[in-house]
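for the writeup, i need someone to sanity check this before i put it in the appendix. the sequnce is what the collaborator sent (i think, or maybe the updated version? ugh). structure was predicted straight from it, no edits. if anything looks off just tell me and ill rerun, i have time this weekend
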Amino acid sequence: MDTLNLETALKNASGLIDQKLGEVLVVPDAPEGRVIEAMKYTLMGGGKRLRAFLCIQTAKLFNVQEANYARVAAAIECAHSYSLVHDDLPAMDDDDMRRGRPTVHNEWDEATAVLAGDALQTMGFELVLNDQAGSPDVRVELAKTLAKASGAHGMVLGQALDIAAETAETPLTL
């Protein structure tokens, strides 16, 4: 794939993911609106959508239909964004800015950031378990894979190692 085709493919993937996320992230005039607004802020606030792009390209290699892979790619973006929201919190890396904008806990507050991160993670599972993500067996495998990648042996482990490395007197090794 040459550079021009790669740029086009990345833009197309990003557009597809933005469309799918826009469909599910409607901010209601209701109590949950604040959390959904914070979710939308982080999900639609830029980013390369590289993880979603890799998911889409892999699905295309196996002739998976767009209706099946689009929600899965969006779910991966949800899981990634959840990890960023939690990573930015004062108890973790205490970042004030993400992608040139205030982090969620600075734009709203810490509690909203925690809830938005939690909701992003669970929305990822909702997306992969949706009927449009494929057969029931495929959806179960997708959910198991997302759980493992997000949990104590995946992103949570990475964050724990990151925090431990900041306080360790000697470097940590895997």
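Helices lie at 3-24, 33-43, 50-61, 66-88, 104-107, 110-129, 136-150, 155-167. The chain has eight helices and two strands.
thx in advance!!
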